[in-house]
Write a structure and sequence with these properties.
five-stranded mixed beta sheet; 27% helix; alpha+beta; 13 strands; single chain
Length: 171
């Protein structure tokens, strides 16, 4: 029984260590975590839900985050966490936390960085400007769409910013 537990713990450690980490970007002084597990302790202090009308008014993904910030009932938070770009949690770091990285989940066939940068060095192999229709999709759908549309391309991850998708290879 001890061997089974030891093997399970070893496997869990290897899986976590194999995951990629990301440095969150800031918009209006708030760190943005999209589909990224925050590595430090924090407290939820609020949430914001965007309407479909608000999302349709955006010209790029950064506009969407700025709408979240504008609709927050408080300014006493350090970061925004969202999975889909529609509902966002406002997060206050616990005292003495110096957050620098988040951990990417193993959710897609490739790593995906939205409003964050890999902590590994990388090279861009292809870049695409997003269509306005794509900007209005959920963040999950944006990632899956651009992964599906690049099956013939060799790359390690997507790097998604304001209105651009870059396919990157880690060095």
């Amino acid at each position: 029984m001890k061997k089974i537990i030891s093997i399970a713990l070893l496997f869990a450690t290897i899986t976590v260590n194999a995951q990629s980490t990301a440095k969150a970007e800031k918009i209006n002084g708030k760190e943005i975590f999209v589909l990224t597990r925050i590595a430090n302790d924090y407290t939820d202090v609020g949430s914001v839900h965007l309407t479909s009308e608000q999302i349709k008014q955006t010209r790029n993904l950064e506009d969407r985050i700025k709408i979240v910030i504008a609709n927050a009932k408080t300014n006493d938070y350090d970061a925004i966490y969202t999975r889909d770009g529609v509902t966002a949690r406002l997060i206050k770091y616990n005292e003495n936390v110096q957050i620098t990285e988040g951990v990417l989940p193993v959710s897609f066939k490739k790593d995906a960085y939205l409003f964050s940068l890999p902590t590994k060095e990388f090279t861009v192999v292809k870049s695409k400007v997003m269509t306005l229709d794509d900007v209005h999709l959920s963040f999950n759908k944006i990632i899956s769409t651009y992964i599906e549309n690049a099956q013939d391309l060799t790359y390690d991850a997507l790097l998604i910013t304001k209105d651009k998708v870059e396919y990157i290879i880690y060095k």
